[in-house]
Amino acid sequence: MPSRRRSATEVAPPAEDLQLIGLTKRYGDLVAVDDLNLTIPAGSFFALLGASGCGKTTTLRMVAGLEEPTAGSIRLGERDVTNLRAYRRPVNTVFQSYALFPQLDVFENVAFGLRRRGIKDVQGPVQAMLDLVELGAMARRKPNQLSGGQQQRVAVARALINKPEVLLLDEPLGALDLKLRRQMQIELKRIQVEVGTTFVHVTHDQEEAMTMADTIAVMNAGRIEQMGTPADIYELPRTVFVANFLGQSNLIPGERTASSGSDVVVSAHGVDFRIPPARITASGSAVVVGVRPEKITVLDAVDTAKVPERHNRLVGVVTDVSYTGVSTQYLVRVPWGVELVAFEQNMVVGDRCEVGDAVIMHWAPEHTFGLDGAAGITAGIEASVLQLESADGAS
Fold first, then answer.
1. Domain 2-232 identical in fold to domain 247-392
2. The model's pTM
């Protein structure tokens, strides 16, 4: 294991940050990428996450040199690579189709780039790369003798052996079934950590992005809605679009009314909700109160004494119960007729509410967020549904 790790760390030379400056791509009247400004730290695993048509793949293709920007520049450190042809950029791409050569075995597929550059002694580098992706024993197999996950690892090895400063991954797991996708998420992250190459991963799958990336940029209509670590974006979405697109959120439109101690009070349908000021991005009086389903505790309505004094709370009636193994999902109809979602871990066997039960839901102010209410509460829902349908089709 130590020797393999040493060879892997030699794959990529010291790299520099990838910078996209005012990057724009127009197709006639359609603006696919709109004045994108982004710095991707060298050696990081970065994900561009968004629904189909948001501009993420167009951005990737401009970085790869496969599309010409309408405006803006692409830089690696101090080097401007905007006008360099694709083959002259220190960048390689792994596509969803893998694009392996069917007539060549695994060894020769990986060696292809080295031989094309006139390197004759390929045995050592190719074997080290195959060991990195854990395919050393399959060097003489043809691609059609491999599973989808193994073919994908061959494609990654073939790209990395050329020592790119940036590896671009264009929906690389889309052709795999659900179980294999999850396995390959772990494998790709392991490979990235070992080689230290900058990975830029384009995906519509939020689980892929959350599992692998150090940083996620959520794209919408050619722009970045929010960027940060997976935990930061999930725990504190900054827009309604992000709250709806990344995971599930309960969103309740309200009005900022007052302050109570260190909290801001937002009133909605006659109920007061407390939100810490640092968790509110709305600048006006219209505030959308948000909470993730797993942050909510569901109790029998008679157990109001068990609700901590400062917690936000709502009464309602259970309309649906779905047991998923790890957790139980409740739909609860609140007094103004809307159904909210709550997830509870199945810690105690048989201790679940039933349809028709009167319940009280509560959660901590620190798990609440306040978003700008001017745009309503539906932004991102359609994109999220399309993402789920696409993921279901792939699995």
1. no
2. 0.87
